[in-house]
Amino acid sequence: MSNVKFNHLLGIKGLSESHIQTIFETADTFKGLLNSPVKKTPALRDITIANLFFENSTRTRVSFELAEKRLGADIVNFSSSSSSVKKGETLIDTVNNILSMKVDMIVMRHPAPGACKFLAKHVDAQIVNAGDGTHEHPTQALLDAYSIRERMGDVAGKKVVIVGDILHSRVALSNIYALQLLGAEVMVCGPVTLIPKNIQSLGVKVSNNLMEALNWCDVANMLRIQLERQDQRYFPSLKEYSNLYGLTMDKLNMLNKEICIMHPGPINRGVEISSDIADSSHSIILQQVENGVAVRMAVLFLLAQGNKIN
Ligand code: CP
What we know:
Elements lengths: L16 H18 L13 E6 L5 H12 L3 E6 L11 H9 L5 E6 L4 H8 L3 E7 L5 H15 L6 E5 L6 H12 L3 E5 L15 E3 L2 H7 L2 E4 L15 H8 L3 H5 L6 E3 L12 H4 L6 H20 L6
Parallel strand pairs: 1-2, 1-3, 3-4, 5-6, 5-8, 6-7, 8-9
Helix pairs in contact: 1-11, 2-11, 5-6, 5-11
Phosphoric acid mono(formamide)ester binds next to helix 2.
């Protein structure tokens, strides 16, 4: 195991390429284990992890829970809808009460950008960001990049376009940081209203034309329109959005090459991606979900070794 240090995983920003390579190499070992008849290791036998989800989740919550169980950790699951947060308790009080029951690590999803960093400053536990508002979703970006590496051999030198609601997407920001660290070129594509104004300052290309973006890229990561974070209308109708930015087999067939199709989920079939593409061999959507368990096992294992990520 490398000597890369991990304490929290709050975001991809602040990580180095070698941090990510260490996570990937560790995930390779865990992926081998997950595909063996045993599937489990007692590596985190003495660790207790609380999963705090203040926002809805299917993939991330189940993936972390499985990763923790495969590592032999004790776990407790907490969702805001059934907790005393509803009675006015602060986040710090809630977490300190949980920690007083001898919990070592917190995995948290929260609607407020920066909530995980805030928590890491105020409580004595290792914090893993499972998505904080429109800010970052680091384990999603890690599993996305890991899946590109698996499908295409390497991330370096690949051209990746992220399509859709970039403005409200924590997946886009974490992917931009991770892919650039690993040597990929990144483009974002979507309607002008859903692209942050100064995003070029992150070193990404910008296109408002899906066919231009598809002709440029090796990999297209299709994002959902995040209606739950939109306080106004950013385009006239979902049908118009889908006509201009939805990925269909007709559009793929117009390319003179194969591209790899990704989606972080949940997918809205017929809006940003057609069913035939989502279920086709072009798509690695379910491989991404599968890889999420190994990647999250790697993150939790490295944290439990007392290493520092950022
Ligand atoms: N990709 C992702 O974060 O999905 P969930 O919201 O279901 O966790």
